[in-house]
Structures are given as structure tokens and as C-alpha cells.
Amino acid sequence: MSSVPLAIRKDTEKVDAVVVGLGPAGATAIRLLGEAGLRVVGLDRAVFPRPKVCGGGLSSRATAFLPKGWDKIPHTVSTGVHLVYGVQPPVLFDVGVPIAYQFDRRDLDAFLVESARLAGGEIIQGTSIRSLEWKDGIFHLTSDSERSYESRFLIGADGVTSSVLRFLLNSDMENHDEGEQIARNLIRMYPASEMEVVNHLSPRLTDVLIDLSAVPGGYGWSFPKTDGKKNVGVVGFVTPLKRPMETLLSFVKTFQKDGGQSVQASRPATWLIPDYSRSKVHGKLPGLFLVGDAGAMVDPFLGEGIYYAMLSAARAVSDILLHSKSPEKASQSYAQWVFHKVFREFSYAQKLASVTYRFPGVYFRLVQKYPHVLSLYASVMTGKSDYRSFTRVIGKNLFKLPFRKVLIKFRHNRLL
Ligand SMILES: Cc1cc2nc3c(=O)[nH]c(=O)nc-3n(C[C@H](O)[C@H](O)[C@H](O)COP(=O)(O)OP(=O)(O)OC[C@H]3O[C@@H](n4cnc5c(N)ncnc54)[C@H](O)[C@@H]3O)c2cc1C
Fold this sequence. Notes:
Elements lengths: L11 E3 L2 E4 L3 H12 L4 E5 L12 E3 L15 E4 L1 E5 L6 E4 L5 E4 L1 H14 L3 E4 L3 E7 L2 E6 L4 E4 L1 E4 L6 H10 L3 H11 L1 E12 L8 E4 L6 E7 L4 E8 L7 H14 L4 E3 L4 E7 L12 E3 L15 H17 L4 H32 L1 H10 L5 H7 L5 H14 L2 H12 L2
Parallel strand pairs: 1-12, 2-3, 2-13, 3-9, 6-15, 13-20
Antiparallel strand pairs: 4-8, 5-8, 6-7, 10-11, 11-12, 14-17, 14-18, 14-19, 15-16, 16-17
This protein binds flavin-adenine dinucleotide (FAD).
The site of flavin-adenine dinucleotide has 39 residues, from α1, β3, β14, β19 and α6.
């Protein structure tokens, strides 16, 4: 993909904002900008409905960002979490109110794109970026389909391998290889794998299951889907998975060990989750907003990204509307929010991850003894609490545990 000269083209459209990528982040940004009466164009290299490697789980707090009519999309609702560790009896916590909703990303994303179009956004599908440059305070973008746009605001919502980021760094660098190198290092990633199975042995059809023994340094999940299917996946947050696909397939086998049968309902697939702690991409250019995975907005404890994709899109739009005359102020305000609010919260989530996934046996003992700890998952997912409070409660309760006994048990558990 080469860069074209910056000569003003006759067919260049001037718009208020350009959005690249139409996943939950991009589609939400377009819808909100459109509702505010701005002229916005959004493009995606895929044609919707398109598949996306993802568990498709949304915490209930995320539904506040969904446009009207979302409840008509096929989905399942969970009110509880099953925590599993090896052969020990699972700990169940059920709050009796919805904490998570599970969707097929094909349906959810297509619905969000259609809502963006209905709000007045110009949607272009099946088109990638051919060139992108920033000059004299204006972004110049040409698409594969030879359409060109100019705007003072650009929202990069094109996922974890963001081309927006690569193009802008490359155009900023005299040496393109150096730009590419920096782009690669700005966001580090965790590989994660998932697939759908039809499973005949389940704790309860509507529960989310988290298995702490499935993955060293991470966890395995099972989310209930429609038609009796389950989305099963693995991710390593403390230790990134070296062979995610193998880890997934052996996790799926653990369901069979118990006498149940798991029949594959989709092909296993691997994709990447961004590591926020390596991300230094925000506030680099006036008028540039990196939202969702492109901005490394995934929490490093649960791996929740859809909520943060929509939250960051909403924040970017509100900064654009508030500072419409000053792209510099708008991007700086967004970057401050990312660093001081979102990444700060993620730093607590990461602390929690390092205790939980490094010492799963100790954590499991803690939850067995104080099952109310699991209610913290629910309060984070419903938006009533945050990872800061979660970390505090875990810290307090850990000290109450009889450590000698726990450590003996922990050593034993590691051998499972
Ligand atoms: C295995 C796995 C399981 C996960 N499970 C969950 C889960 O259960 N719940 C949860 O909340 N999060 C989950 N996540 C994270 C979640 O999938 C992401 O955080 C979320 O999709 C981010 O949304 P987004 O809009 O930023 O990016 P995406 O959804 O990735 O959308 C980016 C869009 O940009 C387009 N694009 C890319 N490059 C270009 C280009 N050059 N030009 C034009 N368009 C382009 C793509 O086609 C895509 O449509 C999971 C991730 C993985 C890998």
C-alpha cells in the first residue's frame, strides 16, 4: 500500500470526521456523530455481516451504549458465574439479575453499522485505506475505491492491528522501516483462541464459566450461546500463550473428560488482544482519536473489549463536540481521559490478574472461603464497582487466609 502525493484531488470530499473501522468502536462513533448532526464517513475493509474472532460476551453495563432495538438481536443472558479450578467443586455465584449478555458478533456488529447508517453516517464497506497523511492540521485519506476525504478529525477504530496507526507513523517518519518498527512496539498483544461447541455437559446453560486451571497465567471460558451452543476460549494475561490453538483444544477436551460430549460448531480461531500497558499511542496528533482495540482499550483481567470500544468511542465524540474548533484540545482531552481514567483502572485490573492468574490455587481457596468475592465480578460487570475496589477486597481477604494451609493446597493444586 503506497502513499499518493498530497495534491488536492478534484473529487476530494470535505467532511467533519472520518472513521476507519466499523466494529463496535467505529460504528458507535459514527452513530453518535451522526446524531449530533456532523457529516461523517466511515469505512471498513469487510462487508457486514462479517465474522469476528470473539467470545461475544457483553457486560450488562455495556448495554447503555447500544442503540434502541438491541434486545431484538438473538442473545443469551447470564445472571451468574461458575468459577472452576481443576477437580475441585466449582464455586457458583448467582446475583439473580443480568450481568452478561452473549451475542454472535456477526449479528451485533451488523446491527451497530446499520444504526450508524440510520443516524446519518455515510458507510462504505469492502474498502481499505490506500493512503493516509496528516498535513497542516488536516487528515487526507484515500480509499481503495479511489475516493478521497479531508477532515480535521480522524477516528482510528480499525482494531488491534490498526492501519491508521501504521500509516500515520510511517508518514511521520523519514525512514519507513523505523515507523513500522515503532508501530509494532506501540501496542503489544496477547493471543487468544476461541471456538463454538455444542456441549452436553454443562453446570447450567445460562452460566458464564471461568476455569482458572485451563491456562497457565490466564483462564479458559465458556459462554452460553443461542441454540444450546457455547463459546469456549483461552487467553493468557500473565504469560501470553505460545500455542493458543493447542491450549484451546486441550481445554475443550476437559469438558469431555467428565462424560459429556463436545461437538465442534465452528472452526477454532486465534486473534489478538491488545496490552494496554505497552500502548503509547494517544495524544500524538491533533484531531486523531484511537478508540477500541486500536487504542488498546481491553481490560487485562477479563479481556473485556466491546464495552471499552463503545465507551472510548463515546468519549472521543464528546471531546470532538466540545472542542470542535480545536482538534488539539479535543485530542489532548481524550488522551488525558485514557491515561487517567481508563488505563488507571486497567492498572488495577492488571494487579488483580497478576495475583489471580499467577496463583490460581490461592485465589480459588479465597473464593471458596469467601464466595462473596465473586460478587465483585458482578459489580464490575454491572458498573456498580470498579477494579480498584475489587483489588482492595481481594487484598484484605487474602490476609485473612491461613497461609500455610493455603500454600500446601496450592502446591498440591499445581500438580493437577
Ligand atoms: C478470542 C477473543 C475473544 C474475545 N472475547 C471478548 C468478549 O467475550 N467480550 C468482549 O467484550 N471482548 C472480547 N474480545 C475483545 C473484543 O473482540 C475487542 O475488544 C472488540 O472487538 C474491539 O472492537 P473494535 O471496534 O475496537 O475493533 P474490531 O471489532 O476489531 O473492529 C475493527 C474493524 O476494523 C476493520 N479494519 C481493520 N483494518 C482496516 C483497514 N485497514 N481499513 C478498513 N477497515 C479496517 C475490521 O474489518 C473490523 O471490522 C475478545 C477478543 C479475542 C481475540
